[in-house]
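Input structure tokens:
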């Protein structure tokens, strides 16, 4: 029994070690990280330590037990959002980025936004990611994910493959580097058959005025995301595929040392 406990303990140490390495890697280049684990108040704290906090607007509400990991924000589909008015300070000038976010929509087949960097006015530009009911591409995609950016070198738009909108939890990663095409990962897998993807352009992100979570280009008529958004991250680099898979697993520990201590305490209790 003692040998079994010892082996289990060392297995836990190894697991925590690798988890700690993954967590440390995912701190590199992190500009904003909203776990959305609050239960009260109107401020979404930025856990990247950059103090880029956001404020809940409209009917955006905390959902402490409904997130993919811990809590989340519940958006009512009306005029709700979470906004950092200083978002332009860290979005403009980016030459590469990765957005990682968990979303859970109440419905599919709509055009509601996940993140945007200006007040919505109907156009997909600047820095945005949303659900798209119908592609404008000649390929005629439907129920897809759309992203777009505006850089000093011009605009780039991305429309993913059809029929990926869902009412289940979905992990999205949207990434770009100057001179390259946009890329989308859905639940850890690269969408390698998009409906449309503009060619890469050299340049820096421009035109952002703020960071808005829960709205997109088409939310210019009092609408917003209908459902939950959790674990929003913004990086100033493209994540490696292993890092994307780690985030998509939905199981990264926040404080692995505490988890190890708790687990080892339980093991000792069983032994006693």
């Amino acid at each position: 029994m003692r040998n079994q406990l010892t082996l289990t303990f060392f297995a836990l140490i190894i697991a925590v070690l690798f988890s700690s390495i993954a967590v440390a890697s995912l701190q590199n280049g992190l500009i904003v990280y909203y776990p959305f684990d609050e239960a009260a108040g109107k401020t979404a704290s930025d856990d990247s330590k950059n103090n880029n906090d956001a404020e809940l607007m409209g009917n955006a509400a905390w959902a402490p037990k409904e997130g993919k990991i811990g809590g989340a924000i519940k958006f009512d589909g009306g005029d709700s959002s979470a906004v950092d008015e200083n978002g332009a300070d860290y979005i403009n000038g980016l030459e590469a980025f990765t957005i990682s976010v968990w979303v859970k929509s109440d419905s599919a087949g709509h055009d509601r936004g996940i993140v945007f960097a200006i007040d919505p006015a109907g156009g997909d530009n600047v820095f945005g990611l949303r659900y798209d009911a119908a592609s404008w591409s000649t390929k005629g995609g439907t129920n897809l994910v759309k992203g777009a950016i505006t850089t000093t070198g011009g605009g780039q738009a991305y429309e993913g493959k059809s029929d990926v909108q869902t009412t289940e939890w979905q992990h999205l990663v949207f990434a770009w580097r100057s001179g390259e095409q946009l890329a989308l990962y859905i639940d850890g897998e690269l969408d390698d058959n998009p409906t449309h993807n503009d060619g890469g352009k050299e340049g820096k992100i421009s035109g952002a005025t703020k960071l808005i979570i829960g709205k997109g280009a088409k939310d210019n008529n009092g609408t917003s995301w209908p459902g939950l958004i959790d674990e929003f991250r913004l990086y100033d680099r493209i994540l490696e595929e292993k890092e994307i898979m780690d985030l998509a697993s939905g199981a990264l520990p926040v404080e692995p040392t505490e988890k190890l201590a708790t687990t080892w305490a339980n093991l000792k209790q069983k032994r006693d």
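The first strand starts at residue 30 and ends at 34. The chain is about 20% helix and 35% strand.
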